[in-house]
Design goal:
- This protein has 213 residues and is mostly beta strands.
- 5% of the residues lie in helices and 61% in strands.
- The chain has one helix at 92-102, and strands at residues 9-23, 34-35, 41-52, 59-65, 67-72, 78-83, 86-89, 106-114, 117-122, 127-134, 138-150, 153-175, 188-189, 193-204, 208-211.
- A 9-stranded mixed barrel has the order 1-3-4-7-8-9-10-12-14. Strands 2-5-6 form a 3-stranded antiparallel sheet, with no helix packed on it.
- The protein is globular.
- The termini are far apart.
Length: 213
């Protein structure tokens, strides 16, 4: 049985991100969540994160957020954030924490790094190859909020990070993506560049929940 520290977690490491335009009809957020899109497309985000010591759990992760959603909870409040459709990790404790705490759809996968290339192989047969060459960066700060549904409960996660942000020439090649990847196979990169986040420090907040109608 995997064990993990209680949140919040203060994490450290390196990350890559690339934005995509995604066909809205390929995305199926949970019931009650409305996808935010324009002219039939949403803005998606693919990310690779390498959590390193002294993070509570050192591991690697690939996440696919095909779009932003909004949902109204039982108290009448409208919540907005990213919807995570797919998440791969190479650590059992991280998998357990993601599923049990934040209702994230984590799955185990293997990760290989060689210079500027990272290769991720999922249990469903998908392979993602990511090459990246960053330019000069500047210190910056940002935040991300995700919304996931667990039965009749809305689970919210907020992460706040600081680090050196740099544009990056990148190429992402995907093979064997099934429907669970919700639009990534036909998504179009949003511009020629991705983003690298170097030497980040991030505060991964404890989950917050509210009842859904």
């Amino acid at each position: 049985m995997s064990t993990y520290p209680e949140p919040p977690w203060t994490t450290y490491g390196q990350a890559r991100f690339r934005a995509y335009l995604v066909d809205a009809d390929r995305i199926q957020p949970p019931n009650g969540m409305k996808l935010r899109s324009r002219v039939g497309r949403s803005l998606g985000l693919l990310g690779y994160i390498d959590y390193r010591r002294p993070s509570p759990l050192p591991y690697r992760e690939l996440l696919w957020m095909p779009g932003r959603v909004e949902v109204r909870d039982r108290e009448g409040r409208t919540r907005r954030g990213w919807y995570v459709a797919k998440m791969l990790v190479d650590d059992g404790a991280s998998l357990a924490a993601g599923r049990e705490l934040w209702a994230l759809p984590k799955e185990l996968a293997s990760f290989e790094s060689s210079g500027a290339e990272v290769v991720m192989r999922a249990g469903d047969g998908a392979v993602v190859r990511w090459r990246s060459r960053p330019g000069p960066g500047v210190r910056g700060k940002g935040a991300v909020l995700t919304l996931q549904r667990r039965q009749n409960e809305l689970v919210r996660f907020r992460g706040v990070f600081t680090g050196r942000i740099a544009p990056a020439l990148c190429r992402v090649d995907c093979e064997g993506l099934d429907e669970s990847w919700q639009g990534l196979s036909s998504a179009v990169p949003f511009g020629p560049l991705g983003t690298e986040l170097r030497d980040f420090c991030a505060e991964m907040g404890a989950p917050k929940s509210s009842s859904l109608v």
